[in-house]
């Protein structure tokens, strides 16, 4: 397929498939579907270092084209689907997968069908699926019900499933670990991630493992994954029928990659923990106010998890820690303006009067 490509040597990031072609299952003939995903910033967070004594870095996955890490897996899943001749991709989603599938399908000129739990998807995410022209169906059930139906349909109809049970998704997502190793020169001591279906937890572990095999890294980080307390099946050791949390991206009661995640935990001397919603929102505020990174609630659980583990004495001083924050704060902005009592933060209103503005800002007369 003759595709327009950036000029050789251009500094524009080419998306994870072109950047890591030798480490993914693609050939010169693969019809790459990319929106330039990956190459996201890994930012030092000294404010979190002061709070925990660790050397903390934040992998800001909200900087992907549709605002979440899902794009890394979706470029690969849609590319492979198109390579196999698919005209329709289908997914179940708490929001970000549908936004990503819709965008990549639009770019490829194919159809995305998305199944979402009724009334449970943040407006920012739903608006993306609408804007990109997805066929959206709200199910009167949970995410887990949506995934069951998507799998059933993909089994018997010519529709291609692009949930993270699709190995192409995990393959694309492993590239985030490659980027971390490139920036730091080795794997960190700890890597903290939010956990929903546990696909990303699994993907990072695979990426680090491959980097060790390739001689790029010398060690495996301890993989620490976090679920919301009201939606913590892996921590509890059993599915949760009606998961509840404000962190809608990880409101999942029966993770698709559960078994893979347990073996990844064992392989990495890892850990799964549960965090209460109030702690998640507190961590979201700390990250926006002290580091300058605005993330959606589910993403802030990495920060909350670090604060909790450090308090428990489980993160040695000076340990190098990477936190993946998975989605942008603009996806689900309502929580940032909500006060503890449920009312909304309203910036002060004044007449058009310089003196009044000066006085409110404490600038004197
Ligand atoms: C999908 C998603 C997660 C959960 O990732 P899994 O691979 O399902 O564990 C976490 N945060 C955000 C913002 C997501 O979109």
List the helices and strands and how they pair.
Layout: H1 16-19, E1 42-44, H2 46-52, E2 55-60, H3 70-83, E3 88-92, H4 96-108, E4 111-117, H5 123-131, E5 135-139, H6 143-156, E6 160-161, H7 167-173, H8 175-184, E7 190-194, H9 199-213, E8 222-228, H10 233-236, H11 258-268, E9 271-275, H12 277-291, H13 297-311, E10 320-325, H14 334-337, H15 354-360
Parallel strand pairs: 2-10, 3-4, 3-6, 4-5, 7-8, 7-10, 8-9
Antiparallel strand pairs: 1-2
The structure holds pyridoxal-5'-phosphate.
Cofactor: pyridoxal 5'-phosphate
InterPro entries: Rhodanese-like_dom, Ser/Thr_Dehydratase, Ser/Thr_deHydtase_PyrdxlP-BS, Thr_synthase-like, Thr_Synthase_bac/arc, TrpB-like_PALP, TrpB-like_PALP_sf
Family: Belongs to the threonine synthase family.
Give an account of the 3D structure:
The protein is α/β, with parallel strands linked by helices. The chain is 41% helix and 14% strand. The chain is built from 15 helices and ten strands. It has helices spanning 16-19, 46-52, 70-83, 96-108, 123-131, 143-156, 167-173, 175-184, 199-213, 233-236, 258-268, 277-291, 297-311, 334-337, 354-360; strands spanning 42-44, 55-60, 88-92, 111-117, 135-139, 160-161, 190-194, 222-228, 271-275, 320-325. The strands form two sheets. Strands 1-2-10-7-8-9 form a six-stranded mixed sheet, sandwiched between helices. It is globular. The chain starts with 15 loop residues before the first helix and ends in a 5-residue tail after the last helix. The model has no long low-confidence stretch (mean pLDDT 96). Pyridoxal-5'-phosphate (PLP) binds next to helix 9 and helix 13.
């Amino acid at each position: 397929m003759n595709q327009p490509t950036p000029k050789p040597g251009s500094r524009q990031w080419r998306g994870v498939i072109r950047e890591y072609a030798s480490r993914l299952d693609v050939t010169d003939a693969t019809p790459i579907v990319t929106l330039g995903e990956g190459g996201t910033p890994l930012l030092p967070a000294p404010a979190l270092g002061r709070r925990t004594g660790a050397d903390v870095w934040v992998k800001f996955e909200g900087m992907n084209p549709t605002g979440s890490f899902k794009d890394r897996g979706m470029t690969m899943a849609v590319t492979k689907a198109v390579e196999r001749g698919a005209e329709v991709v289908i997914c179940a989603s708490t929001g970000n997968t549908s936004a990503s599938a819709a965008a990549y399908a639009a770019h490829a000129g194919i159809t995305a069908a998305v199944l979402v739990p009724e009334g449970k998807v943040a407006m920012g995410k739903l608006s993306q699926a609408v804007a990109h022209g997805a066929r959206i169906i709200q199910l009167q059930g949970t995410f887990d019900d949506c995934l069951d139906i998507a799998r059933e349909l993909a089994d018997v109809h010519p529709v291609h499933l692009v949930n993270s049970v699709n190995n192409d998704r995990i393959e694309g997502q492993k590239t985030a670990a490659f980027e971390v190793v490139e920036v730091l020169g080795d794997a960190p001591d700890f890597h903290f991630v939010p956990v929903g279906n546990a696909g990303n937890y699994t993907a990072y572990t695979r990426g680090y493992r491959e980097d060790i095999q390739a001689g790029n890294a010398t060690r495996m980080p301890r993989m620490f994954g976090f679920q919301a307390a009201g939606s913590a099946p892996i921590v509890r050791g059993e599915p949760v029928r009606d998961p509840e949390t404000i962190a809608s991206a990880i409101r999942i009661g029966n993770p698709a990659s559960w078994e893979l995640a347990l073996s990844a935990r064992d392989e990495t001397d890892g850990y799964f923990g549960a965090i209460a919603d109030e702690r998640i929102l507190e961590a979201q505020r700390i990250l926006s106010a002290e580091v300058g990174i605005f993330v959606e609630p589910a993403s802030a659980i990495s920060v909350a998890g670090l604060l909790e583990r450090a308090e428990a004495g489980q993160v040695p001083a000076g340990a190098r820690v990477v936190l993946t924050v998975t989605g942008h704060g603009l996806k689900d902005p309502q929580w940032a303006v909500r006060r503890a009592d449920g009312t909304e933060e309203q910036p002060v209103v004044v007449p058009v009067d310089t003196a009044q503005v000066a006085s409110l800002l404490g600038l004197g007369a």
